[in-house]
Automatic annotation (TrEMBL):
<feature type="transmembrane region" description="Helical">
    <location>
        <begin position="33"/>
        <end position="58"/>
    </location>
</feature>
<dbReference type="GO" id="GO:0046873">
    <property type="term" value="F:metal ion transmembrane transporter activity"/>
</dbReference>
<dbReference type="InterPro" id="IPR001727">
    <property type="entry name" value="GDT1-like"/>
</dbReference>
<feature type="transmembrane region" description="Helical">
    <location>
        <begin position="170"/>
        <end position="187"/>
    </location>
</feature>
<dbReference type="Pfam" id="PF01169">
    <property type="entry name" value="GDT1"/>
</dbReference>
<comment type="similarity">
    <text>Belongs to the GDT1 family.</text>
</comment>
<keyword id="KW-1133">Transmembrane helix</keyword>
<feature type="transmembrane region" description="Helical">
    <location>
        <begin position="102"/>
        <end position="125"/>
    </location>
</feature>
<dbReference type="GO" id="GO:0016020">
    <property type="term" value="C:membrane"/>
</dbReference>
<keyword id="KW-0472">Membrane</keyword>
<protein>
    <recommendedName>
        <fullName>GDT1 family protein</fullName>
    </recommendedName>
</protein>
<feature type="transmembrane region" description="Helical">
    <location>
        <begin position="137"/>
        <end position="158"/>
    </location>
</feature>
<keyword id="KW-0812">Transmembrane</keyword>
<feature type="transmembrane region" description="Helical">
    <location>
        <begin position="64"/>
        <end position="81"/>
    </location>
</feature>
Length: 189
């Protein structure tokens, strides 16, 4: 299992994602740790659901599933490339009052959990799970670590990440990784 490639693809795909922008917006209202914890729990929950879906799909004929996985990865590459060509949108407005930690945790959990349904990183996790059906725990750890790290960056350093690496560049890097994964998956058929 290509641990680094999976981690990098998920991490780079998550950074410019709507979930990261929502996390940054919520973190601006109060305690970043509460936002990160709520976001991390939601991301881990969604990862478990995606791996379960991938395990179910892995019951189908191997060539069919891998072919669909290759198509999905190539689709993710196109999706990210097109996203990198769109003009950047500004951040949501920042609330001037602080939100209590427990309420912020719940807001972050619900916002991220709902935003991740059928998100590109969740769909990629399903595809990875069909590709590596015998390693669900390892895959869960890799994907969750990538998502939680991206969420942590969004919670604590979101404004500075924008100054270092543009969302457009992150989308381009994610597109190249997914293109490579799609070609590699198709090649291994």
């Amino acid at each position: 299992m290509p641990y680094f490639i999976i981690f990098s693809a998920i991490f780079l795909a998550e950074l410019p994602d709507k979930t990261s922008w929502a996390t940054m917006s919520l973190a601006s209202r109060g305690r970043p740790l509460s936002v990160w914890a709520g976001s991390a729990l939601a991301l881990a929950s969604q990862t478990a659901l995606a791996i379960y879906a991938g395990q179910w799909l892995a019951r189908f004929p191997r060539n069919w599933v891998h072919g669909m996985g290759a198509i999905a990865f190539l689709g993710f590459a196109v999706w990210h490339w097109r996203e990198s060509r769109e003009p950047n949108e500004g951040e949501d407005s920042v609330s001037s009052r602080a939100t209590p930690g427990a309420r912020l945790f719940l807001q972050a959990f619900l916002t991220v959990f709902l935003a991740e349904f059928l998100d590109i990183t969740q769909l990629a996790t399903v595809a990875f799970s069909t590709r590596y059906p015998h390693h669900p725990v390892t895959l869960f750890g890799i994907v969750t670590a990538a998502l939680v790290l991206a969420s942590g960056i969004s919670s604590w350093a979101g404004r500075w990440v924008q100054n270092w690496v543009s969302p457009r560049r992150l989308s381009q890097l994610a597109a190249l990784l997914f293109l490579s994964l799609g070609i590699w998956t198709a090649w291994s058929l």
